[in-house]
Amino acid sequence: FRVELAGGGVLQVQGDLFDHEFAITWENGTPMAQVSKRFFTVRDSYGLSVEPQQDVVLALAIAICIDGIERN
């Protein structure tokens, strides 16, 4: 997926979206966050690891949107 921000900037979401293992990176390749369901046994639990100096709320919003898209 490609995420275009209203204030400028573009993020890429790459990985295995259906297995809930993906990375969020800026268009220039700078990492923003990792999303993983690998270590959680509870059905709707995820791990979100956000890089220092990155927007935690934005990373969480992207992860929630991807989950919603995958469910539909």
What does this structure look like?
The mean pLDDT is 87. The protein has a 5-stranded antiparallel beta sheet with strand order 1-2-3-4-5, covered by helices on one side. The chain has one domain (2-71). It contains 1 helix and 5 strands, in the order βββββα. A hairpin with a 4-residue loop joins strand 3 and strand 4 (31-36). The chain is α+β, with helices and mostly antiparallel strands. 22% of the residues lie in helices and 36% in strands. This is Scramblase.
List its traits:
LOR_sf, five-stranded antiparallel beta sheet, globular, Scramblase, LOR, 72 residues, Tubby-like_C, single chain, alpha+beta
What is the fold's blueprint, element by element?
Elements: E1 2-4, E2 10-16, E3 21-26, E4 31-36, E5 47-50, H1 56-71
Antiparallel strand pairs: 1-2, 2-3, 3-4, 4-5
Shape: globular
* String of helices and strands: EEEEEH
Number of helices: 1
Poorly predicted tracts of residues: none
- What strand order characterises the main sheet? 1-2-3-4-5
| Average of per-residue pLDDT values | 87
Number of strands: 5
The rounded Rg comes to 12 Å
SSE class: alpha+beta
Distance between the termini: 15 Å
Helix content: 10-25%
Protein name: Scramblase
Organism: uncultured Solirubrobacteraceae bacterium
Family: Belongs to the LOR family.
